[in-house]
Structures are given as C-alpha cells and as structure tokens.
Amino acid sequence: MLRLIVRRLLFIVPTLLLVSIVIFLLVEVVPGDPGRVKLGPYASAEQVAQVDHQLGFDRPLAQRYVRWLGSFLTLHWGDSWNLGVPVFSLTMQRLWSSAQLAALALVIIIPLSILLGVVAALRRDGIADRIITVTSLSLTVIPEFVSGVVLIVLFAVTIKIFPVSAVAPAGSGPFTRIYHLILPAIPLMFVELGYIARMARAGMIEALDTAYVRTATLKGLPRRRIVVTHALRNALAPTVAVIGTQIGWLVGGLVVVETLFNYPGIGKLMADSATLKDVPVLEATVLVVAAIYMLSNLAADVIVALLNPRVRFGR
Amino acid sequence: MTEDTPFQQEYADHLRHEVLNGHMTRRQLLVRASVIGLSTTAVARLLAACGSKSAGTTAPGTTQPKMGGTLRATMVSPTVAIEPTTMYDTGSIAIAQQVAEYLAWVNNDLTLRPVLAEKWSPDAAAQVWTFNLRKGVAFQDGKPFGADDVVATMNILLDPKTVSAAIASFQGILSPGGVVKVDDATVAFHLDQPNADFPYLVASTNYDCLILPSTYKLGTWQKNPVGTGPFMMTAYTPKQSATFKKNPKYWQSGMPYLDGIQVTFNEQTQAQGLALQAGSVDMMLYTPVQGSQALFTDPNVKVMTAPSTMHRELAMRVDTAPFTDKRVRQALAYSIDRPALIQALFNGKAELADDNVFFKQYPLSAQDLPQRAQDITQAKQLLTAAGMPNGVNATLFVEEYEEIAQYATLLQAMAKQAGINLKLNQVTLTYWYGSGKNQPWLQAPMGITDWTFRGVPDQYFAAFVTNGIWNSSKFSDPAFDAAVKGYLTTVDETKRREYAKTGATILMDATPVIIPYTISVNRAMRQNVQGVTSDPAEFLDLTTAFLA
User: Fold this and answer.
1) Which among B98, B252, B271, B392 could disulfide-bond with B231, CB atoms 3.0 to 4.6 Å apart, if both were Cys?
2) The domain containing residue B347 runs over which residues?
3) What is this model's ipTM?
4) HSE of B50, CA atoms in CB hemisphere, 13 A
5) What residues contact A206, with CB distance under 8 A and at least 6 apart?
C-alpha cells in the first residue's frame, strides 16, 4: 500500500515536468506576444519588441525554459508579466477561492448523488428510479452558462434571495461567504449530479446482483443491514474513482461559472493568462491544477483500495 | 484671470465673423473658442455679439447634490498592471482617471474644460502654446503641483524608452525638449510645426497624459497610486476590485460629493448587466447594446448615451487585387444599407458615417457632403465598369470584438446582393494586432479594425497619409497629404474647413476604407445615480457624482 503511494507520488514529478514543457511549446504556437498585450494596439512594433526584450521573450525557447524552471523550482515564481503582482501569492489566493467553491459543491454533491443513486438502484425500473435517472441526466446536459444565467435571473434579479456575485463583501463571516457561494455551486451540482448518481446506481445494482448479497438475504439479514454494510462498500468503488477525477475539474476547470458569477478562481486566472500570454502565471496555475488532479486521483485510488481488500493487498 | 492675448482677441473676432457669415454654428464656435483658450468673459462677449443669450451648459434635471455615500461601479478589469504613461485599455484608464488628472478634459460636446491648466494661448502661428497652470493644487502625497511636474510627465511620455502610445500622437508635432518651464506655474510647448488643435493632444483624449509628480518612478503607480485627482485608491486587487476614498484636500472645494467608490471588475457585459439589475452595483462603466438589451427596458435602470466618433474601419488594400480598382471599393460601399446596420447592431444608438474620418461631429468638417446610401444597381454597374460583371470574391478578416462579428455577417449578406462574395475569417484581437513583422491589421488585404474616440480627427490621419504608421489600406495620394498638412498647420478656420472638405471628398471618392457608422457610447446606472453622464471615450469622471 505504502509502496503504491510512493510509486505514484514519484510518477507525478516527471508528469509535471512534461506538462510544463508542453505549455511552453503551446505558448510559442499561440499567436500574439506579451509586449503587445502590455502596450496595446496603438504601440509601434519597435516599442513592442523593446518590452519583449525586457521580459526575455526574445531569447531562444530552450534558454527561456531552463531559466524559468530554475527559478520555479527554487520557489522564485516572480511577478506576473501582465498584472504586476507576485505569481505565488496570486496563484495561492486563487487556489484558495477555488477550493472553497469546490468544497462546498462536493459537500452537497457527494452525499446527495450517492443517496439518489442507491435509492434508484434499490427501486430499479420503478417510478423513483425513472424520475431520478431522467432528472439527473437532464440536469447534467444543461451547460453551466445556461443554468447559471437562469439561476441568476430567477434567484438574484427577480426574487432576490441570493446575491448575484459569488464574492462576499470584505470582512464577512464564514456563513455569509457560504451564502454567496450557494448560487454558483448549483450549476456545478447539476453537472455532477447525473454523472455520480448514475455511477452509484450502476455500482449498487452490480453489488446487489452478487452472490454474497444473495447469501445475506437468504440468511435472513434485514435489508437495511445488507445494503449499508455489505453492498454499499463494494458498490462505491467506481463512484469514488469518478469523484476523484472530478475534483481536478471542480478546482481548476470552472472558467464558465467563475466568469458568470465573477468569482476569482484559479480556472479563470489560467484562461486569462493563456489568452494574454502571461507565461509565469500560466505555468504556475496549470502545474498547481495538474498536481491537484493527480493527487485527487491518487487519493481516490487509495480510498478504493481501503474499500476493497483485494486492491489493498495488491492481489 | 489673465487677459486674452492680442492674437486670441483677433482670433475671437475671426470666429465671430465665421458665425455671422453662417459658416459655423454657435456650438462649433464654443468648441473652437475653448481650444484656442479664450477666457469665459471673452466667450460670453462673443456669444452675445452673435445673438445668443447664454452659454449655459448645465445638464438638465440635476437636483441638489447629496454628500456622502459609496458608489459601486462595475467595469472590465485593467488588462495589465496599471501604468498611466503606457496604459491603453478601458479599465486601466478609468481607474487612473479617478486618482490623476489631465491639463484639460474633453467634454462630450468636444469643448475643452480646463483642469490642471487654468488657461492656455497660442502664439500667432500656433507653434508655441503657453499653458498657465492652476495654483494651490497639491498631489495626494502632499507635494505641491507645478510646472516641473508637467515638464517631467511630458518628458516621460516623449522618451521612446517609455514605450507610451502617446508618442504616436506627438509624432512630427512635439519632440523631446519641446516642453519648457517658463515659471513655476507656466509651461510652454514649442511645437515642431504649427498645430491649431494642440490642446487636445495634452487633454483627456490623449489618455496617457495624466500629470504625475516629477518624482514619479516608472512602473510604480499600481503600488503607489498618485495624482491630484478627486479620489485616492486605497486598495487594488487585479481582476477583482479597486477601492477609492475621497481626497479631502481636492482643489475643487466641496468636491467630490461621494465618500468613496467601490469598483468590482467583471469581464462579461451580461454578468455586469445582471449585477446592475439585481442592485448589487450602481453603475456600469459602459454598456454595449449587444448583450445588454434587457437594461434598456428595466425601469430601475437609466441608460445615458454620448454620441462619439468611435468607429470600425473596413480597410481594403489598394495595392492588392481585387481592390486596386477604386470602383470595386466603391461598389462595396454602395452595397451597404447603413441605417439597417445601425438598427440591427445598436438598436438605433449609432450615427451614420460616410467612409471618411472628417466626421460630422467635428466642428470643422463639411456638413453638406452627400450621405452614401445603399444602391445595388450602382454597385453592380461599378463592378461591370471595373471589368468584373460576374462578381468578386474576397476574404474579410474580422476581429473578435463587441459587435464586429455580427456586423461582418450582415455586411456579407448585403455585399452578396451586389455580387461581392465575402469569405469571413474571424481572428482574435491578439492575433489581429500581432507584433514585429507580423501585424495582420496592417497587412491583410481586407479587414475590420476597431477605432476609439478622438476629440479631433488629427489622430486618425496616420491611417490615410502616405506611409502613415496605421495605414492599413496602403492608400497614398499627394493631394490628400497636402490637405491634411494644411488642415493641421493652418490657423484660419475658413481655410481649415476647406482642407477638411477636400480631405473628406478625396477619401470618399477613393474609398480606401469603409466606415458605415460611428457608435454612441451607453452607460447604464441605477436611477438614484446622479451627476454622471456617459462619455464618448468610455472615460469616467465622478467628481460631480452623487447618490440621490
């Protein structure tokens, strides 16, 4: 088990290195350059070249990469080319904001979708199953920018129960902050709900069809005990794995929701720095999000292992 | 107040004749009088002589201002770190304008309002302009404001190492060393050649010219925002928010009325509008019609509109087939139904333009040139005459910006009726402006580029004169170059008007570019926001704003 974790952790390092190289190459391919972004359309080509030179953007690609890597590894992340603030604190602030939104969404989504999935499995092909499956699937296919706009118009503009912005005024307490995050969390719930609930349903149905559940039933155990202690543990493995892959998205991939609710998350920062060629910020945000992706996947695998002795003991 | 110079008095007399002879309206007279720096008493005398009762320009419907309160505004975030000497984006400019000030502000009617300069006057050739600075003004850090600060700021802007876009506007007009301190409260600008519009070049429309203290170090503004303005910036988080509090020592006594401003940055027009409708902000910096339609009918929201010369320039390279023949370019111009575009794209909030930059909003532009209208028959005849009876194919580069994509789609349909088949190629802003040897907006055979508001047409000429730095169409005509030179360097208004008419006529005939409309700038705010108007350049002056 420990070996598995260590091996996976070691694997993360070369992956991140590869990611950082790919980003450098991609920035090279995307048209435009940082000097132009800094000076705007009316600046002359010479002025733009001058700024590019100051930023070192006119040096050979390999040289730039080595220089960047050296300072990145020693935690000298420098200043954002565009925003003029330190990259490290900027990235960490944004990560913290994103983590809050993701956490709130997960706290609601995980129990709710597992519960719905289990209920649907237990009432397989019944009315409850049909309602849960169709509703959650329909919600999943609504894009966030559609559900987000509808929610804002409905709950923030027409009947004003929720604030339109996801950011609470400075100095607000934790409850006010959560209150501001509820509306943006709902579109995320919609997207995830159908996905995770269906996983839970499928896992549960499979578990209910196994021999040991049949044995337990024939032994005369109460239904509740069979579901909770016998079936659920095994039914959840695929669900946990899916949740693990979704955490990365919830933290780093929420560009649309963050834009709509004007929430300063890391996803929007990443998108902005990609379009405006802010290389230090782009590298930092992508690597942080990539690390979270891999770590949450690893965590999911560990949980799956803990749920399943066969995986835990490596056979 | 200092008396007007003999030259100014002579000029005032000249303006009076212009109006009495019917060459100029009173509104146009006010614009020119403010540029030449006539004192208010002289302007009042002039108007009286022309038979007008008062020069009253107070906005209608203003109530007694209420002190206090914080205005919550939303706008696009500054794209890059805020640096007044090199800024170019709407967000940076609106933020810096709260803290620092110009020598003069360009009002919506194109008159100049003295701010840090109290008064100015040209010599008889309009080659040396003397600015008298306001006394008793201090920067927010306590340092007194004076001539040294103006000279230092101008020297920063004129230094090629600063990489300020303002330098393009000064090219051939003002060079390093041309700004001279006369005494602590007087600065003289010695120009490279006469220029009758010079005050506009150091006013708000040349937006990098905010006056900073002589001690200012480049690149430090975002950390230590400084200026003489009505508000002090107390907090700034890039891409999120900016907080301002009232400058208690502001030189205009009793102002500003507000205690502070809270700015929330938001990149999306639609999200800004929703926040305004929900009442979580009081005002949007600017409100493009596309994406904000709901605001125009919301009873809690009012939308102020300022006519502007903001426009889109469709340039066709006159040295590249099929646009080498001017009849092909004219044919495209005649295929456009301009009123339909204005209705569809702006819900009517735009004005007709005539394929040249001597827009009718400018006081010296010819008002009597025929407006181009859709004429498909003529467009087809022109194509036939050019030897292309079966039509033309061309690729149009379309910048991804505000309404331009929709404009291009409508244009495509209109041009098709005349037999011009346009293939649209949509590109991002960064691609379009590019850099170094690759600047598609200056190289593409045919493309649409966005142009901002200017108080005088002067700053647009670089797109049309021979070898102009912004000349996308590669148009070149000695007659046009001569007209522009005459327009810029002559002081006599009658002659300038003739030069303007010649320039406009040449551009319309040759049609190197198509400019179907000028856009009016909208600004949506809650009903209780008072003392704020819209601005033709999306600028923001909240000195007189208050919450009723």
Assistant:
1) B98
2) 311-519
3) 0.80
4) 28
5) A235
Query: Which residue in A190, A294, A304, A295 sits closest to A238, CA to CA?
Result: A304
pTM of the prediction?
Answer: 0.87
Say yes or no to pLDDT of A67 above 60. yes
Based on the fold, state whether residues B325 and B408 are members of the same structural domain: yes
Does residue B430 share a domain with residue B324? yes
Residues in Cβ contact with B248 at an 8 Å cutoff, skipping those fewer than 6 apart:
none
Mutate to test the interface with A, among B274, B400, B460, B472 (most CBs of A within 10 A): B274
**Total domains in the fold of chain B:** 3
Q: Is CATH 1.10.8.870 what the domain over A89-313 is classified as, yes or no?
A: no
- pLDDT tens for each residue of A163-203: 888 888 878 888 999 999 999 999 999 989 888 999 999 99
With H, G, I as helix, E, B as strand and everything else as coil, classify residue B521.
Answer: strand
For B31-83, where are the E strands, in sequence order?
Answer: 70-75
Which chain B residues have a beta carbon less than 8 Å from that of A153?
274
Pinpoint the residues of chain A covered by CATH 1.10.3720.10: 89-313
- Cβ proximity of B390 and B431 under 8 Å: no
Percent of chain A scoring above 70 in pLDDT: 98
Please name the residues between 242 and 281 in chain B that touch chain A, using a CB distance below 8 Å: 264-268, 270-271, 274-275, 277-280
Residue of chain A whose Cα is closest to the Cα of B266: A262
Q: Which of residues 348-387 of B touch A (CB under 8 A)?
A: none
* Alpha helices for B299-423 (secondary structure H): 326-334, 338-346, 376-385, 404-417
| Residue B226 within a domain | no
Q: Which amino acid type is present at position A296?
A: S
